[in-house]
Amino acid sequence: MKTILIMGASGGLGTELTKYFSAKEYNLALHYFENEPKSLPLNAVGFQADIRKEDDIKNLIADVAKTFGTIDIILNNAGISKSEISWKAEKDSWEDTMAINLTGPFLVTKHALPFMREQQFGRIIFMSSIVAQTGFVGASAYAASKAGLIGLTKSLAKELANKNITVNSIALGYFNAGMINDVPDDMQAQLIANIPVKKLGDPEQLAELMNYLISDKAAYLTGQTLNLNGGLYS
C-alpha cells in the first residue's frame, strides 16, 4: 500500500483531501502545525511540524518513513495568504510567506527524495494558484511564492524523470474551502461573478484531479501546471 504525505492536512482543503483519500487504498501521513486533525481514519497518522524549520521537516520525513516504511506521494498543500499592499508590507511578513509557501514545500520534497529515488517511484504535487498567473491587489508575496512553485515544478520534473518520479502543480482558482473563508462576502460575490462557470470549485474536484496525477495512468504527465479555475484563466 502506497503512502501519501498530505502537508497542511488540518486546513480547509487539507481536511477535504484527507476525507477523500482515506476512502482509497493508501496510508495517510497527515502533517499539521498547531491544529492536530481529529478523528483520524484508521489508515492515517498525524505528524506535527513547523514547515518553516528544516530540522522539523527532517524529523517529519524520518518519522513518516519509520511509521510506513517509505514515502511515495507528497501533496504539498500547506500555505498561507496575507493581504498587504506592497509598500506597506513588512520584510518579516514577506519572508514568512515565502518560508511556508515556497521554501517549506521545497525542503519537504528535498528530504523525501532519497526514498523516492531509491524505490524509483514518486508523485509530487505542488499547490500553486491562479494568483501566480494573474496577480492580485494586496497579494504580492503570495503571488510570488506560488509562481515560484511553478518554476520549481518544471526544474524538479527534469531532474527526476529518469527515476519514475513525476512532479506537477495545480494552479487553483477559487474553491469552497480554505482561504476563501477569510474573504468578505461582498468580495466573494464579485469573485464568483467573474468566474465563467459562476461558482466556486468543489474540493472533491481537486481531489479527483490529484487522484489521477498520482496514478500510474499519469506516468507520462510531468513538469506541468494544471489550471483548475472554472475558466477564469487559461
Please tell me about this protein's structure.
- The structure is a single chain.
- The protein is an alpha/beta fold.
- It has one domain: NAD(P)-binding Rossmann-like Domain (Rossmann fold), CATH 3.40.50.720.
- It is 44% helix and 18% strand.
- The chain is built from seven helices and seven strands; from the N terminus they run βαββαβαβααβααβ.
- It has helices spanning 12-22, 54-68, 91-119, 130-134, 140-160, 185-194, 203-213; strands at 2-7, 26-32, 44-48, 73-76, 122-129, 165-172, 225-228.
- A seven-stranded parallel sheet has the order 3-2-1-4-5-6-7, with helices on both faces.
- Strand 1 (2-7), helix 1 (12-22) and strand 2 (26-32) form a beta-alpha-beta unit.
- Helix 1 packs across helix 7, helix 2 runs parallel beside helix 3 (91-119) and helix 3 runs parallel beside helix 5 (140-160).
- The longest helix is centred in the middle third of the chain and has 29 residues, at 91-119.
- The protein is globular and about 45 Å long.
- The relative contact order is 0.14.
